[in-house]
Design a protein that fits this description.
The chain is mostly helical. The chain is built from eight helices and two strands.
């Protein structure tokens, strides 16, 4: 469930006598609201990550089969059984620490930045139509991924090496490959996150606006559930 991301109101016309005055409102969302979005969304994503992490480990092992070589590929079930037999149940949670760290940061940032970004577009262009919402979501997703990509790189390295330690792995990456190695794959990751966040948040935001306008639903739990 995502918090209130309703379009901001820039001003309210107030008629006094023969003159129409514009009564400005604060365009910047309250700091407490931004922090609330960040915290709730970050914790939610972290909980989901904790439950689904074994699937992520299996996915990475599937993708990294026979790197640089040819050979018969093992399916998902085969990889899972291989992990359990050779490395034990704990292997299904390799890289969990960086995974949870990234979840809190990425999940919190992409949802926490959406509303302020939308407000900035409204201030600049005077509109919060669906295209603005798509652009806001795309920026929030891409920016969040760019910041958290190093944690994702470390997570994948740990998932491939059961004996690795997070801090030691970071030092090894920087010393052997340079600090730029922490941003390997950031381009495709940003494109994916931009498309994903834009489609999710813009759709949710616009659907909520239509429901408020055309039904008796008001801001609250039932509206978010719909």
């Amino acid at each position: 469930m995502i918090g209130d991301i309703s379009p901001p109101v820039t001003s309210i016309p107030v008629v006094e006598g023969n003159e129409e005055l514009r009564k400005p409102q604060n365009l910047i969302p309250p700091f407490s609201k931004v922090v609330s979005h960040f915290g709730i969304s970050g914790i939610s994503v972290a909980l989901a990550t904790g439950v689904t992490h074994p699937l992520d480990v299996v996915k990475v092992r599937l993708q990294m089969q026979h790197v640089g070589q040819r050979g018969p590929l093992i399916g998902m079930t085969g990889i899972f059984l291989q992990l359990m037999k050779n490395e034990g149940r704990r292997s299904l949670y390799l890289g969990l620490t960086p995974a949870l760290t990234r979840s809190v940061l990425y999940g919190g940032l992409r949802l926490g930045l959406y509303e302020p970004t939308k407000v900035s577009f409204d201030w600049a262009f005077g509109s919060t139509n669906v295209l603005v919402k798509i652009a806001s979501g795309a920026f929030a997703g891409a920016f969040s991924t760019a910041l958290t990509n190093p944690v994702e790189v470390v997570k994948v390295r740990l998932q491939m090496n059961p004996n690795a330690v997070p801090i030691a792995e970071v030092r090894e990456i920087v010393s052997k490959e340079g600090i730029g190695a922490l941003w390997k794959g950031v381009g495709p990751a940003m494109v994916r996150a931009a498309a994903l966040t834009a489609s999710q948040l813009a759709t949710y935001d616009e659907a909520k606006r239509i429901l408020v306008k055309r039904t008796s639903l008001e801001e609250g739990f039932h509206l978010h559930l719909w």
